[in-house]
Design a protein that fits this description.
Elements: H1 2-20, H2 24-51, H3 60-77, H4 81-99, E1 100-102, E2 107-113, E3 125-126, E4 132-134, E5 143-145, E6 151-157, E7 159-161, E8 165-171, H5 195-200, E9 206-212, E10 216-218, E11 225-231, E12 233-235, E13 240-245, H6 269-274, E14 280-281, E15 286-287, E16 290-292, E17 299-302, H7 307-310, E18 323-324, E19 329-335, H8 360-365, E20 371-377, E21 382-383, E22 390-396, E23 399-404, E24 422-426, E25 429-433, E26 435-440, H9 446-451, E27 463-465, H10 469-492, H11 496-501, H12 503-519, E28 524-530, E29 534-535, H13 538-593, H14 595-608, H15 621-625, H16 629-645, H17 667-684
C-alpha cells in the first residue's frame, strides 16, 4: 500500500513541476519516499535477524521501489537541471549501495537473474549472465555487486559433511550422460564449489563419481548440486573387504577380474573410471581396521557385516577373514587366475614382486600361472588375500601318526580315516593286525602332494581350505596301497606257522618298503609299528597263544627257581648267625656254672617238657609210672654217677661240645658244684 501511495504522489508531483515549474512538491514526495524506505529497511533488518530471512534488498517490493525512484529521478532531471543532477547522483548511489553484497562466513550467495534471454544449452542454471540461476556463487570474504533490480541474491547455509560420513553429489544441470555410463566423470571444479567450472568443463547431469570428504564444509550451490550424506565403509580388524564395481567398462568374458586401477583404495571414483576401470570383481582388497570414503553408487563393498545380504550366499564370514597359517602347517597356494599350465599337475613357478600373493595384478603381469604354486605360505604367516584369487590348503608339516584300526564316525576328518584294520588270508585263515606309521611331510613336498591328489581345484571361491582330503587321498592311495599289497604278497607264499614265525622279518621288510615308497613323494617315513596278529577262528587264536603261554610259564619257573636259591642262601646266613649266638650263650653259661651243671640243667629242662597223661584208663600201673618225670630222674641220676666217676679225667679229655662253645673250665670248680647239685636233687626226690 505504501508503494502505491508513493507512486501516485510522485506522479502528481511530476505533473505539478512540469506545469508550474516548481519542484517543491517533487522534493516533498521524495522526502516521504526516503522516510518510507528507511522504515522498510529497519523492519526487514529486524526480521532477518529474528527469522534468518533473506536480505531486504532482494525483496521484489524494494526492487520495484528503487526502480520507480530511479525512473522518476530521470524524468524529473529533464526539467530540473541542478536539482535533477543531484537527484540522479543520489539515485545512482542508492542503486550502487543496494547492489553491494557482503556474504556471511557461514553462508553462500546464490544469484538468480530475473530478466533477460535464456541460454539454449543451460536453461535453468547457467554459467553465463543469462536468465536463470547463476552457477557461480558469491563466497564469503569477497565484495560482490549485482544489479539490484535485475538479480535476486539468496544467502544459503554452506554444506557441511559430518564426521564418519561422505557426501554423494547429484548434478541437476550439465551435459547428457552416455547411456553406457551411470555416473558422471570427474571434473575439475574445486569439490563442486565452482559450479561455473563444472558446467564449462563438461560436467554431466546425475550422480557423480567423486564424493565430498567427511568432516569438512563446502560452499556449494545447492541449486546446481544436491548432496546426500551416507556412512563411510568400515572394515573390522582381522578381516578384509571385497569390492565389486557397479560402473565402468564391460569386462571381456575370458577374464575373471578387471584391470587394476590405482584409485586410492577405490576412494577416487573419478580416477577409477578415467583409468579404464571395469565392472565386476576387483583384484585389490580393503585392509581391515580402517574407514574408507567409497561411493556406494560406484562400488559395492562386501564386509563381514554385509556379506550375508550382498554376496547371495556365495561368500561366508570365513572367506573374509585374514588367512593365518597355524604352527605345524604350511599353506599350499592355488591361484584361480593366470596363464594356463601345460599339465594339470604342473606346479606354478615362482613369481617375483607379488608380496606373498597380496598383489594379484603383479602376479598376473609377471606371467603367473593358474593352479597349485611352488611357493607356499610358511607357518605363522598372516595374509590378507583375495578369496576370489587364491585358495590356501593347509598341509601338516608336523609328525603324523597314522593308524590302521577300526575307526569311529567322529574320526572321519582324521588323515587316516580310510585306513582300516589290516586283514590277510593265510591257508584259509583270516588274520587281522593293527599297524601304525609315523611320517612327516616337508614344506617343499606339500605342493606336489596337493597337485597329485586332487586338491588343486581352480573353480569357485577360494580362501582358507581346511579340508583334509588331499592328505587323506595320499595316505589311502599311496601308503595304504603299499601296506595292503605287501601283506597280500607274503600271505600268498607262506603257511600260518611261517607267517607268524617271520613276524620280526615282516616288520623290517615293511618298514623298508614304506620308506622307499614315501621317499619318491619327498615324504619322510619315521617309525613303523605292527601289533599282534589275531585270527578270526578262536581255535587258531588259542593255538597261537599256547607257545606264548608255555614260554611265559617257563619264564615264571625260572624266576621261582632263582627266588628259591636266594631264599636258601638267606636261610644259611640266618643259621650261621643263630649258631654264633647260641655258641656265645653256651660259652657264657659254662664259664658261669660249669660244663656238668649246664648239662644237668639242660636235661632237667627236657624232663619238664615231657608229656604227662591226663587220665588213666585201667591196665598195668607200671607202664604209667615209667612215663612220669621220676623215672626220667632216675635215669638222670645214673648218668650223674657216671659223670662223677669220670670226673678224674675231665681235665685231660674235654666233653664233646660244639667247638664254638668249648671253654677252659677249672676242674676244681666243676667238682665242687656238681655234688652240691646232686644233693639237692636227692633231697627233692
Amino acid at each position: 500500500m505504501k508503494f502505491i501511495v508513493y507512486l501516485i504522489a510522485a506522479s502528481v508531483a511530476i505533473l505539478i513541476g512540469i506545469y508550474t515549474d516548481r519542484n517543491e512538491a517533487f522534493m516533498l514526495v521524495n522526502l516521504v519516499g526516503v522516510v518510507v524506505l528507511v522504515q522498510h529497511i529497519s523492519k526487514r533488518k529486524r526480521e532477518r535477524k529474528e527469522r534468518g530471512a533473506r536480505k531486504w534488498r532482494d525483496s521484489p517490493v524494494m526492487m520495484t521501489l528503487a526502480t520507480g525512484y530511479l525512473a522518476i529521478s530521470v524524468v524529473s532531471a529533464g526539467a530540473l537541471t541542478v536539482t535533477g543532477a543531484v537527484v540522479i547522483l543520489v539515485a545512482a548511489a542508492l542503486i550502487g549501495w543496494l547492489g553491494y553484497r557482503s556474504i556471511p562466513s557461514d553462508r553462500v550467495g546464490v544469484v538468480r537473474r530475473r530478466y533477460g534471454r535464456t541460454h539454449p544449452e543451460f536453461r535453468n542454471i547457467t554459467p553465463y549472465s543469462t536468465r536463470g540461476v547463476r552457477a557461480q556463487t558469491l563466497l564469503p570474504g569477497r565484495s560482490s555487486w549485482v544489479f539490484p533490480a535485475l538479480n535476486e541474491v539468496r544467502f544459503l547455509p554452506r554444506t557441511r559433511v559430518a564426521e564418519g560420513r561422505i557426501g554423494l553429489v547429484t548434478a541437476k544441470e550439465g551435459r547428457i550422460r552416455p547411456a553406457d555410463r551411470s555416473l558422471g566423470l570427474s571434473v575439475v571444479c574445486d569439490n563442486f564449489q565452482d559450479g561455473r567450472a563444472f558446467l564449462l568443463n563438461g560436467g554431466e547431469q546425475g550422480r557423480q563419481a567423486d564424493t565430498l570428504a567427511p568432516g569438512q564444509a563446502y560452499y556449494i550451490n545447492t541449486e546446481l548440486f544436491e548432496v546426500e550424506q551416507v556412512e563411510r565403509v568400515y572394515v573390522p580388524p582381522g578381516t578384509i573387504g571385497l569390492v565389486n564395481a557397479k560402473a565402468g567398462r564391460i569386462r571381456p568374458p575370458e577374464r575373471i577380474f578387471g584391470p587394476h586401477v590405482e584409485c586410492e583404495d577405490f576412494q577416487n571414483g573419478g580416477r577409477f573410471l578415467a583409468g579404464g576401470g571395469e565392472q565386476g570383481r576387483q583384484m585389490a582388497i580393503l585392509q581391515g581396521g580402517a574407514y574408507y570414503s567409497i561411493n556406494p553408487a560406484l562400488f559395492d563393498v562386501i564386509t563381514v557385516e554385509t556379506v550375508e545380504k550382498t554376496s547371495g550366499g556365495e561368500l561366508s564370514v570365513e572367506h573374509l577373514q585374514e588367512i593365518s597359517i597355524p604352527v605345524g602347517y604350511t599353506g599350499v597356494v592355488i591361484t584361480l587366475d593366470g596363464a594356463a599350465p601345460e599339465s594339470p599337475e604342473q606346479l606354478g613357478p615362482r613369481v617375483d614382486g607379488h608380496q606373498g600373493f597380496r598383489l594379484p595384478w603383479v602376479f598376473l603381469r609377471n606371467g603367473g600361472h593358474r593352479g597349485v604354486q611352488e611357493e607356499t605360505l610358511g607357518e605363522g604367516t598372516v595374509s590378507a588375500l583375495n578369496p576370489y584369487f587364491v585358495r590356501v590348503v593347509l598341509i601338516p608339516t608336523r609328525l603324523l601318526i597314522l593308524e590302521w584300526n577300526d575307526k569311529s564316525p567322529e574320526k572321519s576328518r582324521n588323515y587316516d580315516a580310510h585306513l582300516n584294520r589290516i586283514a590277510v588270508t593265510v591257508q584259509g585263515h583270516r588274520l587281522f593286525v593293527d599297524m601304525s606309521q609315523t611320517l612327516q611331510i616337508p614344506q617343499q613336498s606339500a605342493p606336489g602332494l596337493v597337485s597329485r591328489n586332487g586338491g588343486g581345484r581352480t573353480s569357485g571361491v577360494g580362501g582358507l581350505d581346511r579340508d583334509p582330503l588331499p592328505v587323506q587321498r595320499f595316505v589311502e592311495r599311496v601308503l595304504g596301497a603299499i601296506v595292503v599289497s605287501y601283506f597280500n604278497e607274503i600271505a600268498a607264499a607262506a603257511t600260518v606257522k611261517e607267517f607268524l614265525e617271520t613276524y620280526a622279518e615282516t616288520r623290517t621288510n615293511l618298514t623298508s618298503r614304506v620308506r622307499s615308497a614315501l621317499q619318491g613323494w619327498g615324504v619322510e617315513a619315521r617309525i613303523t609299528t605292527l601289533g599282534e596278529f589275531e585270527a578270526q577262528d578262536p581255535s587258531l587264536n588259542e593255538a597261537m597263544k599256547r607257545p606264548a603261554h608255555e614260554q611265559m610259564r617257563g619264564e615264571l619257573l625260572d624266576v621261582a627257581l632263582e627266588n628259591a636259591e636266594r631264599e636258601d642262601a638267606i636261610d644259611a646266613v640266618r643259621v650261621r648267625g643263630e649258631s654264633r649266638r647260641a655258641a656265645v650263650e653256651l660259652k657264657a653259661r659254662i664259664e658261669l656254672l660249669g660244663l656238668n651243671n649246664v648239662v644237668v640243667l639242660e636235661m632237667l629242662e627236657q624232663i619238664t617238657k615231657a608229656p604227662v597223661p591226663q587220665f588213666i584208663g585201667g591196665g598195668d600201673l607200671s607202664a604209667y609210672l615209667e612215663t612220669q618225670p621220676m623215672a626220667r630222674l632216675g635215669e638222670l641220676l645214673d648218668r650223674m654217677k657216671k659223670l662223677q666217676a669220670d670226673s678224674s679225667i675231665e681235665e685231660a679229655v674235654a666233653p664233646s661240645l660244639p667247638e664254638a662253645a668249648a671253654t677252659a673250665v677249672p676242674a676244681q670248680q666243676d667238682a665242687t658244684v656238681v655234688p652240691a647239685q646232686q644233693d639237692v636233687t636227692t633231697e627233692q626226690a
